[in-house]
Structure formats: structure tokens, C-alpha cells
Amino acid sequence: MIEELLSSENPYQQHRLAKQSMLLEQLNELTSFHYQHCIPYQRIIDKTATPQQAARLEDIPYLPVQLFKMLDLFSMPASEHFKTLNSSGTTGQQVSRIHIDRTTSVLQTKALNTIVRSFLGKSRLPMIIVDNNFLKNRLQFSARSAGTIGFSQFGHHHLYLLDDEMKVQEQELEAFLERYSGQPIFLFGFTFIIWEYLLQYYRARNRKLDLSGSKLIHGGGWKKLQEQSVSDAEFRRLLKEQFGLTEVYNYYGMVEQVGSIYMQCEQGHLHTPDFADVLVRDPDTLDVVPYGQKGLIQVLSILPRSYPGHSLLTEDMGTIVGEDDCRCGRKGKYFTIEGRLPKAELRGCSDTFTLQT
Amino acid sequence: MQIIAPNLRVETIDWKTAIDHVVDQSSLHPFQDTAIQFLEALSKHILLDRSMRAYPELMAMAHWLRKAHIFELKREYEQRTSDRYVLPRGTIIHFAPANVDSVFIYSWILSMLAGNKNIIRLSRRTNEQTDILMRKINDVITRPEFTAIASRTLLVRYGYEQEYTAYLSEHCDVRVLWGGDQSVRTIRAIPLAPNAVELVFPNRYSKSVLSADAVIQADEQAMAVLGKQFYNDALWYGQLACSSPRELFWVGTSESIATAKERFWNSLEQALHKEHYKNEPALNMLRLTTSDYYAAQEQTGQVSAGYASAPIRVEVKEADFQLRDMHCGGGLFLEYSLPELQQLHQHIHERDQTLSYFGFERQQLAVWAMQIPNRGIDRIVPVGQALDFGSVWDGYDLFTYFSREIAIL
Asked: pLDDT tens digits, residue range A193-246?
């Protein structure tokens, strides 16, 4: 079943009822699997008196995503450990540690493939990575570089557009565009980096660049752009105006569920692929809220085998817009992300000074 | 450096001059009339303002400043100093904790009553309660009749600037540090004047002990009071004040404990409901994450959670001091069951500050306290008084530290 889903040319074709019953069966199986193979997970289920088998998707037990910062959770023997993924985090912050075996890694790669190919097409395109070449600089190895490596497989002759000072390497870019003139190019980068080091670079110099017909995929969150009050629509408008880019796709995803990414369609909606889903919960009661109501995003995915991450409650706020009827034609739920839960202001007798690190 | 109070000296731009001005004043006498009158005026100014009822912590503080209570402190002071020659130390610099809004008030006032001049450093982080309190202080301290207090008081706000801390440390006679361990370390690295002394209040941790039989025997009204008082102790500062109980020890047979727990948590939930207690969603998420972390540990038992902001309870089967380090506040309780009070000794950590109790005799607890095997526990108080500030705090008699004695033979 999962093999079929992950090799499909269109990962957005399951209708509501079929998808729900398939996900329910798969996710229930995963809950049992992790219950048997991950003792801390078993303890959590048992001690919180959570039923293991759910009759509805909303009854699937979930873990708060931040728990992976406090605990190493995995459902495999140490001998099968293949790699550990770390979330990004500012200095001093705890990072998530996600333990991956070969099986899960393969599933993640396949999932990302089927999703991205359905947007970019089957053949690989010449690729511009809007970032500096972190391969030269091992110290920087992070969630950002891991994401970039994942997407690199969809392009060839990769050009790392920025130098070590994050400045556009104009000569290299010119040569690249000349070499592939008339061909669509695949551009990839993190939302904030594209904004700050590509868009602002050309805007400040009041210069345009012709990238029409090319495709841009970007992700990594809106937090920094929200601080500058830049909306998704504004971001797209400027990319069109400055570079003639009309095929711009944002994606939502996290290191805790690599592979299950939610791509933005031409209508501006994030889409759930056939093997993943989202639920929205009220931030106060944690009850599931109706479509159209904003709340905390819970992500469901049938990929995580090596760690109990198939059902996670995130701290991202979002709204489900609808299901199966997006004008782009894709089936499944479609939604928007509207920022993150504001951090709790803790009151307590601590921290006269907080050290700046 | 921003000077917050008194907001008289607007023309004084230079921070050094402002500090020097306070340091150069003569000290007052202990319990001098103007100090008592000032505190009475401040207390009234807060208590008579109906809008202040929204801030029970500030109301409790204003209550503490009432004339009757100040006279109690005066009697306490006089008892300790009778037949002795006691004077103020001079200038005291208080480093207030960033987030417990009112605790700096207590150390300031005890020091003022001992006759000292006071400089209080607040962090850059502001909150509603502190802002209101500052406004109230300024309203009163700027009155002409309190010039003597205004010229001996300086409330300042600054961030991480070592220059300020160094200057203040060089010019004070006592440095009082309230704060987290890291903050205490940072400030302690800055030298004090050779003849100055230091008082340190780092992170502490508190717990409650309840007799299951006493809870079972309490009538409905007593249970409602217990619920409300425990609510105040635990949740006024989101369970993050040093004195807020985070662990609960039940003493009794397992059957009586089961019955008592049900009564107790019901009464607490009613109190929460009455007070419309609600955590920020982000705190609820942190609490959910922390309780899952607890559930994943071997030494814990059942984890019970109710509706969103209701208390989360974690049964602990084996003593483990590591569990407490993960505690996040917001109504999360680690529960232990003990057959007898005596077994509580093994759960006392050096960092423990307040033990609040229900259903035990003071004498029984005094005997128990004298056998504590380490330096843990500085206060043992009935449930409902965990947050009440006293002139003996964290094992220090503050009046003694804020005074100097002349030996005359």
C-alpha cells in the first residue's frame, strides 16, 4: 500500500473517505508498532491512559513535537541506526534529535520525490541554490543544509548563488543563465534567504533579472518575514515583478517528519499528500476545531518507522481551508500556516540577568 | 540606566550623580516615623484603589505594608535588639529577580525600616504588575512629606551593563542578589567594596506535605479553604515562585491517600474554576511536553491530566531529584505517597526552601525539622502562607544583615 502511494505520479488523488480509512489503518498499525518497540513511548501511552487503537483520525495518540528535544525516542535496535537528524535552533536552544534507520530514510526520500516531481516534472532541471556553498564549510551543517541536500536531487549542475558573505555572485549567475538560456531553471532556497539576499539585493540596485518560465521552491518558515510584515502574496508579487517568476511554491515541513512536506499550490494553499494529513486543534482545549477555524497544527504521516513521530502536535498555528475541492485540482485537505504560538512569558524568581550568548 | 523612581530627578541625567546622591545621604534611624508613614501611605494607595483587585499578589503585598503589620515587625526588631546598640549598615543595593514582580519590595522595605538607603536594580523585562507598582510608588514617594525617603531611594532599570553593576557594587555596604543561579554567578564575579557584605537568594524549590487522614476528616468548608489556599500558594506566580509548591507528599495508608487525593484535587479544581485560572497556550504545550517526558521515565506512575489548564499530576514511585529540574510550572505536580512523615527526610534536597503543611502539628514538624539530614528547608508554614514574606528568609534574619551592631562594653 505504502509502496504504491509513494511511487504514484500524483500524490494528491485520494478522496476523503478512502484516505481517512487508509490513514487510520496505517497510523493505528504504527501506534502499535511503536508501542511495542519504543519503551518510553509505551510508558507515555500507558501512564496517560491513552487508548492505542483509534476509531477516528483525531483519536490517534499524538506527541508534542518539542518532546524530541527532551527525549531520544526510537523504535529500532541500535544496530539499525542510520542517521540522526537535528532540528535547527539558535545557539543555546535545545534541538530535536530524530533517529532514522534505512527503511525510514528510503521512505522519506521516495515521499519527497513523488511530491516534488509532481510539481517540477520528471526530468531534472539546471538548479540554482540560493545560499552559500555549505559543502565547503562543514561547520555549518544544519537543518538548512540537510534540506538543501534533499532538494538537490531534483536538479543538475547546481549553482550556489551566494558567496561566503551572502552576496550574489553575479558573474557566475550570468554564465549559468547564458549556458541554460531558454530552459526552465529550478531555484531552491529558504524563504528568508531569498527575501533578504536575492530579492533585496536586486531591489536595492533597482535591477531586474529574467527568470521567467523557471520554478522556485522555498520553505523554512515565515517568522522573520512576518516581523517585517511581508505577506506571502507580497513575496510572490515581488518575485514576479523583479524576476518574472510565476511558478513559486512554498512548502511547510519539519525535521520531525522529513519527507511529508506540504507544498503550496497555485492557489496559495498548502496541500496534504495522500500519505499524510493535518488536524487543527484549539490551543486552549486541544479539541479538534472545524475547518475554517485557526488553531494548532497536528501532523500525521505514515512514514516514521524508526521513531514514534507518526502523529505530532506542533506549535504552528494554521487553518484548514477545505478538503478535496481546491481549485488547483489536488485532492486532500488544504490549509494555511499563520505563524507560531507566542512563547510563554514565564514568571518566577529566576534570571536577574540572562546571559547573552 | 533608566531611573524609574523617584521620578523627581528628571534633570539628573548622569547616573553616577544619581547614585552618589543617595549614597551621600545620612542614614535614617531604624523604624523612623517618616518610613512608617510612607509605607502606610503606599499601602493605602494600593488597597483603596478598586482596580487593584485584579492583582491579588499586589493586594497581598499592600496588606503586608499595613501599619499594623509594620508595628509587628517593629516589635520583632525591638525584641532582637533590646540592650544592644544597632544602627543601619548604610547603602543597600538590591538586584530584583526578573519575573517575580513584587519580591524586591520586601527586601527594600525591611532594609528601609532598618534605616538604610536603598538602590534597587530591576531587569529590562517589564510586566504589567511591576509597572503598576512603580506608578504607585512614584505617586507616594514624590509627595513633599516623603522627601526624606525619596532622597534615600533609587529604583533603576538596566540590562547587562557591567559598568553599572561594578559602580553600584563599589559604592554599597550590602549587596542583595535575587535570581537564577547563572545570574547570581555573573554578578558575584564583580567585586564588592572591601567592607561590604552580600546576601544571596538563588533558585529554590518548594513542596507540600499533607496528612491524608486530616484531608478525609476536614468538612466541606475546610476543604474549600484548603483548595483556595493551596491555589494561592501554587498558582499566583504560575507555580514559578521559589516558594510555590511543585511536589506533594501524602502521608497515610494507601487507601486513605487515594480517598484524600480525590477530595483534595476536587477542591483545587473548584478553586481554579472560581478564579478563572488559565495558562497561556504556550505554557500548556510546555506542560504537556514535560508531563510526557515524566511519563516516559521509569520511576513515575500514572499521569493524570484534566481539561486544558487543570492541574497535571504525576505519580512518582521512586525518589529522583532529576525530575524536578525539568519542572516547568503552570500547575504541574509531582505526587509521592509516604506511610509516615519520617520518610519525608529522604526526599529533602539541599535546594528545598519552603515546606507547606496541612494536618500536622507544629511541634511534630519541629522535631522532624531538627533531624533533616542536609541543609534543605528554610521555612515550614501552613498551606496558604507559602508566599508570605517574613523577615527571616532562606535562613537569614534580614534585619540582622541589614544592620550593624556597635559593641559597647
From this structure: 999 999 999 999 999 999 999 999 999 877 778 778 888 889 999 999 999 999
Residue-wise pLDDT for B263-293, tens only, equals 999 999 999 999 889 898 999 999 999 999 9
Selection from B398, B376, B234, B243 nearest residue B311 by Cα: B234
Selected for mutation to probe chain A from B128, B292, B389 (highest A CB count within 10 Å) is B292
Phi-psi region of A351 (alpha: psi -120 to 50; beta: other; left: phi over 0): left
In a domain, B370, yes or no: yes
Residue B391 lies in a domain: no
Give pTM, 2 decimals.
0.88
Contacts of A73 in chain B (CB under 8 A): 296
* Contacts across the A-B interface (CB distance below 8 Å): 149
Same-domain status, B11 and B133 = yes
pLDDT at residue A88, rounded to an integer: 64
Beta-carbon separation of B296 and A44 below 8 A: yes
Contact between B283 and A41 using a beta-carbon 8 Å cutoff: no
Q: Which residues of A touch B327 (CB under 8 A)?
A: none
- Domains, chain A: 1-80+270-340 (2.30.38.10), 123-264 (3.40.50)
CATH number of the domain where residue B58 is located: 3.40.605.10
Question: Is a pLDDT exceeding 60 seen at residue A350?
Answer: no
Do B130 and B217 belong to one domain? no
**Quick one: B180 and B213 in the same domain?**
no
Q: Is A347 on the interface with B (CB under 8 A)?
A: yes
For cell 553600584, the residue is: B168
Residue A345 contacts B, CB cutoff 8 Å: yes
> Range of B16's domain?
2-203+396-406
Q: Are B229 and B383 in contact (CB under 8 A)?
A: yes
CA separation, residue A94 to residues A68, B2, B298 (Å): 10, 34, 23
- Assigned domain for B388 exists: no
Q: What is the pLDDT of residue A355?
A: 33
Write phi, then psi, for A139 (nearest 5 degrees).
Answer: -60, -30
Count of structural domains, chain B: 2
Rg (CA), chain B: 22
